[in-house]
Amino acid sequence: MAGKEFVRKPVSGYVILVLELVLVGIAAWMLSQGIEYRSTGQVLGAVFAFVLFIFALPGFIVVQPNQAVVLLLFGAYHGSVKHYGFWWVNPFVSKRKLSLRARNLEGEKLKVNDLVGNPIEIAAVVVWRIDDTFAACFEVDNYEHYVTVQGDSALRHLAKAYPYDEPEGGTISLRGSTDEVSDALRQELQERLQRAGVIVDEARLSHLAYAPEIASAMLQRQQAEAIISARRRIVEGAVSMVEMALDQLGARKMVQLDEERRAQMVSNLLVVLTSERVTPVINAGTLYS
């Protein structure tokens, strides 16, 4: 039942502290007067004042910045104190302090299968904080353990929803779409942890790799894909340069090329532009020689 939290503004502890000191002074004076004049009433009054002083002491609490104190009175929720300072509350309430500061959850490396079934290793770092103290205390048994378990579960679900890599592009992948994947992980974690009164400020992958048993094979595949992609771009660039060269030669009317010589020049230029070493063998003959 998240959302039942209500913030209580307790009495200033400094005011009660002054009253406590006055009470001690009165009790000491009454005790001395009772002993001097042998007055039973004054002695009993002094004893009562001392008992009242001791009774009020447990009510003092110190709340630090970004800290909250949850109050319980005979098993019933009695509000939360979120204002930092020195306060006094009902001495009968039990108090539980919670930190509202941002925390890091650095998950362990998980071995799961991605969308296409490849075994991968994945881990994430989550920045979270408590927002609803009632939910954190009473909706889950242990909110820290709850965050850890739900974090692992959300990360496993995320890994199975996307492929590790998408060579052709155009789709979201774990390796190629970092921002989209991180945002999806944060949203899923927020939905899961809302019951515990937790807000997820940030969630990002801290480790992503193929599992050791297929890492070598996948590395070879990536290298082959990189070579093919590079060759494709080289060829595309070479064709564009040859086309530009022929267009400029024709526009300036520097030479007149028949179809045979035109094909010969295209062949020579492509050899020069696509060769890895600048030692090409130029064909100086004709197509029919």
Describe this structure in words.
By secondary structure, the chain is α+β, with helices and mostly antiparallel strands. The chain folds into 3 domains: 11-98, no CATH class; 103-210, Band 7 domain (Tetrahydropterin Synthase, Chain A), CATH 3.30.479; 217-274, no CATH class. 48% of the residues lie in helices and 21% in strands. It contains 7 helices and 10 strands. The strands form 3 sheets. Strands 7, 8, 9 and 10 form a 4-stranded antiparallel β-sheet that branches. It has a 3-stranded antiparallel β-sheet with strand order 1-5-2. The chain is rod-shaped, with a radius of gyration of 38 Å. The termini are far apart. The mean pLDDT is 82.
What class, by secondary structure content?
Answer: alpha+beta
What percentage of amino acids are in beta strands?
15-25%
Per CATH, the class of the largest domain reads Alpha Beta
How many individual helices? 7
Please compute the radius of gyration using only Cα atoms.
38 Å
Number of domains: 3
Overall outline: rod-shaped
Element-level helix/strand string: EHHEEEEEEEEHHHEHH
- The CA-CA distance between the termini, in Å, is 90 Å
CATH homology superfamily of the largest domain: Band 7 domain
- Unreliable stretches, pLDDT < 50, 5 or more residues? none
Looking at the structure, the CATH topology of the largest domain is: Tetrahydropterin Synthase, Chain A
CATH architecture of the largest domain: 2-Layer Sandwich
